Prior knowledge:
Blueprint: E1 6-10, E2 16-21, H1 22-27, E3 32-41, E4 47-53, E5 64-65, E6 68-70, H2 78-90, E7 97-107, E8 113-124, E9 138-145, H3 146-155, H4 164-170
Parallel strand pairs: 3-8
Antiparallel strand pairs: 1-2, 3-4, 3-6, 4-5, 4-9, 7-8
Amino acid sequence: MTATEYVVLVDKDDNxxxxxxxLYAHQHNLLHRxxxxxxxxxxxxxxxxxxxxxxxxxxSPGLWTNTCCSHPRQGESVILAAQRRLEEELGFTVPLxxxxxxxxxAHFPNGLSExxxxxxxxxxxxxxxTIHPNPEEVNATRWITIEALQEEMAAxxxxxxPWLAGALKIL
Length: 171
């Protein structure tokens, strides 16, 4: 994180409680608003675009996760924030649909935590699009079916972010 970033603090019902500096929120386990995007292609096979987080991320570096995830800014809708981050991280954007939300709380070896009310969004990848990963955010990408992903997660949960399993339950 180079510039100071802020997250929107919320209660369990997603009511806005103000903002906190992102690192502070992660140091103090504060519940904040987030989103997880799942981009699919190839109906009916339904492959999901996964990203491997950049190796120098301050938590969960190198772990595989959903297509894109982040936090909306104060006053920014979840969908517009997700489209902004898709463009910033992967170089494309698509229409997104909100399909649910859940709260999770994960603690990391470096003392940080993610305590998030996570909005789950889905979209379809058009054949005309191309992926241009931002190396500051994304180490690698790959397509996988949900079934194959669930098998990998069962065999090697340590290769995946802690929020991915909860988000998949919403799908």
